[in-house]
Amino acid sequence: MPDSISRRTLLGAALPFSLWGFQRNGPSAFTWKAALSGEAPPPASPLVLWYRRPAASWVEALPVGNGRLGAMCFGGIETERLQLNEETIWAGYPRDNNNPLALRNLPDVRRLLFEGKELEATALAEKTMLGLPSKVDSYQPLADLWIDMPQLDAVSGYRRSLDLDTAIAATEFTHNGARFLREVFVSAPDQAVVVCLTADQPGRISARIRFTRQQDALITGDPASPRTIILRGQLGEQGVRFEARLEADARGGTLRPEGNTLVVENAGELVLRLTAASSHNNRSPEAASSSTLVRARQPFDQLRQRHLTDHQIYFRRVSLELPANPVVAPLPTNERLARAKAGEADESLAALYFQYGRYLLLGSSRPGTLPANLQGVWNEHLSAPWNADYHTNINLQMNYWLSGAANLSECQLPLFNYMDSLVPPGSRTARIHYGARGWVVHHLSDIFGFTAPADGIWGVWPMGAAWLAQHPWDHYQFTQDRAFLQKRGYPLMKGAAEFILDFLVEAPAGTPAAGKLVTAPSHSPENRFRKPDGTVSMFTYAATMDIEICRDLLSNCIAASQVLDTDADFRRRCRQALERLPEIRISPRSGRLMEWIEDYDEPEPQHRHVSHMFGLHPSSQIDLFRTPALAAAARKTLDARGDKSTGWSTAWKLNFWARLQDPERAYKLWTMLITGCTLPNLFDTHPPFQIDGNFGGTAGIAEMLLQSHLGEIRLLPALPKAWHTGRVAGLRARGAFQLDIEWRQGTLAKAVITSQRGNTVRLRTARPVNVTAAGRVVKTRQEEGLTIFESSPNRTYELHPG
Predict the structure, then answer these.
(1) Which spans in 435-507 are helix H?
(2) Which residues are CB-contacts of 86 (< 8 A; sequence separation ≥ 6)?
(3) What are the pLDDT digits (tens) for 251-300?
(4) CA 678 to CA 693: how far, in whole Å?
(5) CA distances (Å), 389 to each of 96, 212, 332, 448, in order?
(6) pTM of the prediction?
(7) Before 414, cis peptide (omega within 30)?
(8) Alpha-carbon dihedral of residues 410, 414, 417, 422, nearest 10 degrees?
(9) What beta strand segments (E) does 287-404 contain?
């Protein structure tokens, strides 16, 4: 996980927890001057974020996106700002960052670690194992689009909103008797940002439209079209070139260019279409943006309908209803958030947050795009917090925890495309740094294939690919798509495992793990330990998280090879290595899970990372029913770590407590997430903004309602008292099942399971259930607290309390 300290703090320096509130590159201010009067009514739909004032800063603006393009809508009156992003506008360029000194020094680094000389090993590794250079550059904004309407000096009935069901951001108000409406969406079918301004009186739309960018770009009119302005730029001599084109259509009135500005006067309707592209992957940004703009020259109503149809195919798969507070539910979103922070009950806010997470994933990770980065696709900074890059020591993975359960499996496909792109450079890094086969990624990457250790000693953590490889297997478990597993998933998993098999080394005699296969070097990401002699380090061997990741990957590879009936010899090698891994251990002095190979003290007991809990979630090596002793130790670990943390960490802890089936503790973490780690536009804040907290929080809410690891479907495993009555439809379970669940007064009222592939159903419920299909009783059996029955493909089964 990126943290504000590791980029600038020397090993062993003080790491005070108070800095969890560290801010960098704070959001820009946005000033509006129009006078406001009157109050607009609330929207009719509960799936709307809405406000009675324009956004005053970026973290109040509302996001729209199609995976590739994003816009933040401020809802200004006399001046509207749309802050724009295109997913490939990254500083930097492809280069070989591998360090030729790494492999020859690896044996000495390992020897020093095994001898307990961590600081000497640290010094050597920092000199010889970091990438050259050891950094990535930042994801950057594309531009700002401004719509100036200075005549709008005083308005009434103002409302700006984001409808999650339509993926349209709207701004509406009344000026001099006319009702104005501005709608913004980013179309996936037509790959364009679309803006429509209307008024219910003719001739009322007059505006000046312009682009700006802080640097590295020129803005001109299009000599071939008086309705078009163009922004062109390049990020350094070797960096990407990019272009954005904006075309305006006015119905009635006049439209003319004034230099690099378009001027509209007295129109009845104004439609703007914006396209953009870069030279990434050897594209021509000029050809791509212009040809896409030509295809987007359709009537606004057609563009809007195509956008709606496409979005709702995905978004409407899942619905969630939780108890609503009629006092606060109709209030603007910022007021609801403020009241929640003051302690007022607002359970339906959790349903809105859940659907917002699904909306954000759809907006930042669509098939054919790059995966969601640390900020999804939305970023206003030339130098973004933590570069808005791909952090692989939890953040990129957390972005996709919700995809299977929340019925958006297609949104995970960009992650697999990205993993495919990392295999060639990752294979080179594996060979040059470790003399290993397979492919490796360290704790961060970018769109140019950076796979070497980065930043500092904490970057010498070669477990990123191994953790990422959990996702193809999870995708298969949810979809049961054997063709995907064979062609894409298994090769990625096998390549990551080939590296691990070569990277693991036998711990020498005299060490706590003597004779076992261990990772060396190793970290428990970004955390440190204190030895009895007072030495503080983060560099070690066989950190618990590493071993859990290895166990997860090797076990999944064995299962995948069995499904595909292939690679018997590779499967045997995985089993042999698996048998020689150290076990997860419990501290005899604290009763907690041991984070390190020895029972060290912690300089920062409430560290935001709880990496050794990987085995509880997202893996399932620690389970309340299968490994109760480890589950009890996990609970003690979480108690000691504390609840208060950064945004993404709070979301992870929510998932932990859901897996431990502690509904009230999970609910406490949800409450802390929404009240302490959520910005006015419901973005998660580390701080500053990181989108993984949104995605992790959404996944956590799903885990509270439905779990499906270890071959079991667990209904309402962590349902808190506050969510006493509700329903959810469309959640997915591993095994290719879809579920609708209703509950009343905290107990299951009814569930419907649709079996896509005809797999065996293994249900764990708080009370016995009866199963029927088409009105007929289904034969079940009881086994170790489970209700088990055989299903048929594409058949639906109803569950009722027994």
Answers:
(1) 464-468, 470-479, 482-484, 490-503
(2) 68, 69, 70, 142, 242, 244, 276, 277, 278
(3) 999 999 999 999 999 999 999 999 999 999 999 999 999 999 999 999 99
(4) 9
(5) 18, 24, 33, 11
(6) 0.96
(7) no
(8) -140
(9) 319-321, 390-391
